[in-house]
Amino acid sequence: MGSFKFLSFLTSKTHPRLPYQNPIRQNLVDKPESQYGPNRVFRFLRRLMSGGIIDGGSRTEAEEKVYSWLYALAQSDKDLVYEYVRSTERGLSFTEAERRLKENGPNVPVDFSFPRWWNFLWHAFFHPFNIILIILSVISYITSDSPNGCIMLVLVLISVCLRFYQEYGSSKAAMELSEFVRCPVKVQRCAGRVVQTELVVQIDQRDIVPGDIIIFEPGDIFPGDVRLLSSKHLVVSQASLTGESWTTEKTADIREGQSTPLLDLRNICFMGTNVVSGSGSGLVVSTGSKTYMSTMFSNIGKKKPPNDFEDGIRRISYVLVAVMLVVVTIIVITDYSTSQDLTESILFGVSVASALTPQMLPLIVNASLAKGALAMARDRCIIKSLSAIRDMGSMDILCIDKTGTLTMNRAIMVNYLDSWGLDKEKVLQFAFLNSYFKTDQKYPLDDAILAHVYTNGFRFQPSKWKKLDEIPFDFIRRRVSIIMEREEDKDPHGFERVMVTKGALEEVMKVCSFMEDVDSGAISPFSPEEYQRIINMTEEISNEGLRVIGVATKKLEKIRYERKDNDDTSESDMVFLGLITFFDPPKDSAKQALWRLAEKGVKAKVLTGDSLSLSIRVCKEVGIRTTHVVTGPELELLDHDAFHETVKTATVLARLTPTQKLRVVQSLQTVGNHIVGFLGDGVNDSLALDAAHVGISVDSGASVAKDFADIILLEKDLNVLIAGVEHGRLTFGNTMKYIKMSVIANLGSVLSILIATLVLKYEPLTARQLLTQNFLYSVGQIAIPWDKMEEDYVKVPQRWSKQGLPMFILWNGPVCTLFDVTTLLFLWIYYKADSLEDLVFFHTAWFIEGLLMQTLIIHLIRTEKIPFIQEFASWPVLCSTVLVSAIGIAIPFTPIGEVMGFIKLPLSYFGFLVVLFIGYFVVGQLVKRLYILVHKSWL
Q: Distance (Å, rounded) from C-alpha 336 to C-alpha 761?
């Protein structure tokens, strides 16, 4: 699947002018060897015993180094930071920068080495089941049994091509990372040998090295992890890391503490984040594989937890090989001792081995998966990985992001409150007028206010007002002001001219000197006590999951209004009116969908980067329990065992970083032993999507997220997933039907042949007859993907049981062999078919009995109920059964039968078969009920 090569960084080479290897950093990041030497030995042994499984309980060593390095820089003065990275206030020289670039390589988060097509082909080909079929086909060709060999090679070709197509297409996802951050960057460099001059140049972000001083402005993307040196009203979006749409204020003039969460560090900017507003300069402290982003993506492409189904198939292959070697060897030796024809004995042995092999397994599995994929395509889903459908049937936990999945991803207005928390229409009126006359750029909150007014019948008559001016919104002030007056007031001394300001509550309150009692109209000073009271009230509202903005007004007394550019004094001494609250409502279908998922045994956990209060509010609305909640910063403080226990019980996990989402998914998979699905659409969800058993994204999601997803939804609707779960369980059930019935039928048939060969001292069937019987039986199984499952089966998650199949074989396998031996005794005793003279009769009788027995096994195994009485198979399965049985019975009566060495059988034998199969169904049903009573399940 290719490998990720991380760029070297901070290597041991030195430079005579400006050595880059920094002993200070080594002390900050790498602990002394003497202190941690024994621990490394214990860590190695622990990893060896755990088999290299990542359980998500702790950060990796690379992550710990990045965390330690960034926290050390955040807690240090700017002057000391230069020493840490061996730079100067003037920046690096061009010579030093070039040397560091050669030393460390290009500045890309991950360097992905794309594998060749033959690597994927080999990976698809090298499977025990394929090897078995290829070996048998080669032997078949050697022994002049070309048709059988050709059939097996075709089956191998189908299996290999399907797997190659899936893996080759999905592996291209990691290539998106190399294109993630590419843009020119302004860098301050110093030039000159004697007198050094500072120059600002533009270079590609791939050429940035640690120690560079960068200069940034709105729209720029940070090319590495940066310690701020200067900042002016700097606002940064970290949506690529957190998934939150809100912006973050950053400042250079601060020293952070160890208790501050990493992504909340205000003097550190991270690779891949972008400047929304403001400007400044910063010192690049990490590039390439040493950045925080690289620790995110370093786990991409790592091996997922073992797939129980594929592991089970592999175990079956090994068991079949072992049984095949023993049984075929005995049969060949026994047959050769009688016939003295080695070629014929080997051909018969190959035929027995072929009969023992479930040849239709790749076709049945892929046909079932393809059928599920087509069904989900009708539900507007794109299935990238067919095996994901089967995994959805086993999924018992679905981790989902809140925004856009549970909610509509749009704001609706909830309340319009005065300073005392009471609904006041005047607050809504002025908020409406502000949004109505705003022209610079309308935001979703403006649309929510307008929609609320129009749909609730308010008549604020905006036509009576005239807009004079607008002070547009920006990310520094975070508010917008509209200056307007009433048109009908012609008296210059009687007109009403006001400024209405709306925006972030803190920024609106910052420009207010008064507050108004809306009922009485009384104006009073805006005291610190009132300020704190409103802040406390706002916190209570925010804890309910609502977003709050403030509204203020100011009467303008000038007869002729004029505003100078860059004049901020007009937004001052304003009167605070009140608050407007908003909510991102849950989807109407979300609650019903989650309830239906819970009915089917799939628990939902919310993993989001949003605030805890907002997440709790949404989860309560859609019926997710919120008794156990936790945040990302709280998880960071937990030890290994406490982390896993918290993840196990928590239903809402908020303020998670991308790596924390990954750790939560890994913990659920390994420690919790769950089959985990993850639904996300952002870059910050890529790690979890890659690690989950079933990664689900949407068509509007980030390209990286869609590439790592196994399933892409064309609509953000959880009800589509319910259909996927049902298709997955149907696919899993039909696949298990085939595996169990084919293994029982094949093993029973081969053991019966072994017993008959040892007792009779001759072949109970010729090689041609055995291959024909096996071929007809295999054709009859083709319809299994179109069979139905019982309602109770699809109500709970279905997983492969390592002990289930062996116990199933031990219980049910002897029943088949018992009735084959009964047939042998009947032919021997009743028809006296115990000599070579009766060989043709015996071959014909054994052929029909074996074919009908294997065909009827399908109906006995496919349901836990009584077949043909309590439960009927689907019509394709019934038709295939009748057709194959009819062909098998008719062959001895046709010219083909004569060619194959068959004769016509007496009617008394068919009467015996009726009694035999009734007895088989009775005994098989009794064994089935006992098995269900003991093991509590059937398929």
A: 10
For the question of residue 401 being annotated catalytic, the response is yes
- CA-CA distance, 59 to 71, in Å (whole number)? 15
Mean pLDDT, to the nearest integer, of 539-548?
Answer: 84
Tell me the Ramachandran region of residue 421: left when phi exceeds 0, alpha when psi lies from -120 to 50, beta otherwise. left
User: DSSP letter string over 198-250?
Assistant: EEEEEEEGGG--TT-EEEE-TT-B-SSEEEEEEEEEEEEE-HHHH---SEEEE
Average the pLDDT over 860-872 and give the result.
87
In the 8-state DSSP scheme, what is residue 625? -
Spatial separation of the C-alpha atoms in residues 680 and 702, rounded to whole Å: 10
User: What is the per-residue pLDDT for 300?
Assistant: 62
How many other CB atoms sit within 10 Å of the CB of residue 462?
16
Provide the pairing of β-strand 603-607 with 652-654.
parallel
DSSP string, 833-901: --SGGGHHHHHHHHHHHHHHHHHHHHHHHS-SS-BTTTB---HHHHHHHHHHHHHHHHGGGSHHHHHHT
Q: Distance from CA of residue 132 to its chain's centroid?
A: 33
| Beta bridge mates, 696 | 679, 711
Of 212, 401, 418, 685, the active-site residue reads 401
Burial of residue 770 (CB within 10 Å: 0-12, 13-18, 19+) is: buried
pLDDT of residue 177 exceeding 90 = no
Sole residue written with tokens 């992905």: 112
Nearest-angstrom CA–CA distance, 384 and 697: 11
Could you tell me where the beta strands, DSSP code E, fall in 505-628?
512-516, 523-525, 547-555, 574-583, 603-607
How many angstroms separate the CA atoms of 487 and 865, rounded?
Answer: 82
Q: What is the dihedral of CA 741, 742, 745, 747, to 10 degrees?
A: -120
Distance CA 290, CA 69 (A): 10
Backbone phi and psi for residue 12, each to the nearest 5 degrees, phi listed first: -85, -5
Per-residue tokens: 133:
């079929």
Residue 343 pLDDT > 80:
no
Which residue in the block uniquely carries the two structure tokens 């836990």? Answer: 864
Q: Judge residue 749's burial from the number of C-beta atoms within 10 Å of its C-beta, 0-12 exposed, 13-18 middle, 19 or more buried.
A: buried
pLDDT on residue 398: 93
Q: Which residues of 108-128 are buried (b: 16+ CB within 10 A; e: fewer)?
A: bbbbbeebeeeebbebbbebe
Alpha carbon 552 to chain centroid, angstroms: 46
DSSP codes, 256-301: --TTS-GGG-TTEE-TT-EEEEEEEEEEEEE-GGGSHHHHHHTTTT
Q: Is the pLDDT of residue 243 over 80?
A: no
Give the separation between CA 89 and CA 800, rounded to whole angstroms.
Answer: 62
Q: What pLDDT sits at residue 27?
A: 47
Position 5 scores a pLDDT of 35
Q: Determine the 3-state secondary structure of 470 from DSSP.
A: strand
Closest CA to 110 of 269, 290, 304: 290
So what's the pLDDT on residue 299?
Answer: 61
Q: In sequence order, what are the residues at sequence separation of 6 or more whose Cβ sits closer than 8 angstroms to the Cβ of residue 520? A: none
Q: How far apart are CA 566 and CA 568, in angstroms?
A: 6
| 638-685 tens-digit pLDDT | 888 899 999 999 999 988 888 888 889 989 988 888 999 998 877 778
* Secondary-structure percent of the chain, ordered helix, strand, coil, rounded to 5: 55, 15, 30
Dihedral sign for Cα 440, 443, 446, 451, please.
positive
- Written in H, E and C, the secondary structure of 401-455 is CCCCCCECCCCEEEEEEECCCCECHHHHHHHHHHHHHCCCCCCHHHHHHHHHHHH
With beta carbons less than 8 A apart as the criterion, state whether 81 and 285 touch. yes
What is the rounded CA–CA span in Å between residue 148 and residue 70? 65
Which of the 8 DSSP states describes residue 461? -
pTM: 0.71
Q: Find where tokens 């409103």 sit.
A: 534
Of 285, 470, 456, 389, nearest to 735 by C-alpha is 389
Q: Residue 753 in contact with residue 764, Cβ under 8 Å?
A: yes
